[in-house]
Amino acid sequence: MSQRSLVRLPLVLAALLLLLLGAACSGDDSGDDTSADDPGTASTDSGATDSGAAGDQPASGTCTYTEDGQQAAKKVDPPPSEPKETGKVDVTMKTNVGDIGATLDASTTPCTVNSFLSLAEQGYFDDTKCHRLTTQGIFVLQCGDPTATGMGGPGYSFDDELSGSETYGAGTLAMANAGPNTNGSQFFIVFDDSQLPPSYTVFGEVGKAGLGVVQKVAEKGTQDGGPDGPPKQPVTISGIS
After folding, report:
1. Which of 1, 11, 189, 210 gets the most CB atoms within 10 Å of its CB?
2. CATH of 11-45+85-240, one of 3.50.50.60, 2.40.100.10, 2.60.120.10, 1.10.10.10
3. Distance (Å, rounded) from C-alpha 148 to C-alpha 207?
4. pLDDT value of residue 61
């Protein structure tokens, strides 16, 4: 089973989730999804294992975005190979439950931020639902898939940007993936400190007010009351500015 981009739980917790959820189905999603087992595409994939070693940082000044063989969930052009932004970049995710402000770090993750901003500018995230909430083992809200299945992506993938010392405290904004160097469009917001391997590119931080918005969603749990699934309180991103 695979998902475009998932946040993968440690093996024991992942196995526990499989027992609890009854082996949720998953799709082939090459690059974005957070989860109780993996933040990413298609439906929750509660049995994923750790994604493994991180990819190298991109060559100075250039980024590579490669077609992944999957049909794009929304038609978009690939990002430019040269990032437009440097340093810190403030963004606001407009949602039906409140604004979620975040600061992106283009100095440490230039290609990730470049892709995220390109997708936002093209309206890729407009009117999309955050499809996955995980409240056990790890604590994340996963978004970025226009199909809301966990399997949708932009039709391209790109490499990780990792130092190997990543941590995932409350407020962390990171990319979901289906393994090393499979980033796409799915991302996750950590609403409480979570133990994850340093395998998910951290490209920003959600502000205090925005974190509060996500935590209120998390308090209501999932649609079926389980530890991993669509949030009971629907979250729809109307746009990112």
Report:
1. 189
2. 2.40.100.10
3. 25
4. 76
